[in-house]
Specification:
The chain has 271 residues and is of the alpha/beta class. It folds into two domains: 8-211, Alpha-Beta Complex (2-enoyl-CoA Hydratase, Chain A, domain 1); 215-262, Lyase 2-enoyl-coa Hydratase, Chain  A, domain 2. It is 50% helix and 16% strand. The strands form two sheets. A seven-stranded mixed beta sheet has the order 1-2-3-4-6-8-11, sandwiched between helices. The protein has a four-stranded mixed beta sheet with strand order 5-7-9-10. α1 (37-52) links the parallel β3 and β4. The relative contact order is 0.11.
């Protein structure tokens, strides 16, 4: 994704800011943005940093080159497997929990909208990483694949939780048991992509539109949606009562109503 001159490159992640949008671009195009522990840690660190930066209203996660992410960098992973050792299982569990799952949790717990922009494939853990974002938009080159089964593995990035809720139980079984790749148009039809865009510029304009929304409201909506996924209808209603009472006391509520009555565009401050 194109960025402004304020970009600050790291070894595997390029971080830049465009207005109120923080852009995190995975930068391992030679491996189709294969995931390493270093890259995952960088994502966690930068997502958390965006969470404490009041000037940032939305985050975009994307990939450099022709892929969003092909998932785990298996060449790097195989060196760990071949090393073996008595503590291999413990080390693997540590990496899964403290790097892979930490990245998923960082994205879902950030009290700001996270948008995945795909201009290529999101496969394996790369697919789960995209599913952990609140919105997914992409070009016609965007593709999704829960390809774990083709590697003798099961999804391990929350895909067994998120995918059925996005596409339905039967389709989720189909995608996970076959490992088939889903093209952009079909991805939009079944709910993986919220919209197809023509260019990076259009994707950024969409992110800026989201970022212009009231921060307190977006945080409450995100919290309520994720809480509702693991609770009942009554609990969802109670979450809405709690959130709405809080928002009714905000300056952004007053601004939103005033702007409506005065027929102007609201200017939300997050207060």
């Amino acid at each position: 994704m194109s960025t402004d001159p304020s970009q600050a490159p790291t070894s595997e992640l390029i971080v830049s800011t465009h207005g109120a949008v923080r852009i995190l671009a995975m930068n391992r195009p030679q491996t189709k943005n294969g995931l390493t522990l270093e890259l995952l840690q960088a994502i966690v660190d930068e997502v958390k940093a965006a969470g404490t930066d009041e000037s940032i209203r939305a985050v975009v996660l994307t990939g450099k080159g022709e892929a969003f992410s092909s998932g785990l960098d298996f060449k790097a992973a195989m060196s760990m497997v071949q090393a073996g050792g008595a503590d291999y299982a413990a080390q693997t569990e540590n990496r899964l929990r403290n790097y892979f799952h930490a990245a998923i949790r960082a994205l879902t717990s950030l009290p700001k909208p996270v948008i995945a922009f795909l201009d290529g494939v999101a496969a394996g853990f790369g697919c789960d990483l995209a599913l952990a974002c609140d919105l997914r938009i992409g070009t016609k080159r965007a593709r999704f694949g829960e390809i774990f089964i083709k590697r003798g593995l099961m999804p391990d990035g929350g895909g067994t939780y998120t995918l059925p809720r996005l596409v339905g139980l039967g389709r989720a079984f189909d995608l996970m048991l076959t490992g088939d790749i889903v093209e952009a148009e079909e991805s939009q039809r079944i709910g993986l992509l919220s919209r197809i865009v023509e260019s990076e510029a259009e994707a950024l304009a969409f992110a800026e539109r989201i970022a212009a929304g009231p921060p307190l409201v977006m945080a409450e909506i995100k919290q309520a949606i994720y809480a509702g996924l693991s609770s009942g209808f009554d609990a969802a209603l109670e979450n809405e009562v709690r959130g709405q009472l809080k928002l009714l006391q905000s300056q952004d509520f007053i601004e939103g109503v005033s702007a409506f009555l005065m027929k102007r565009t609201p200017l939300f401050t997050g207060k």
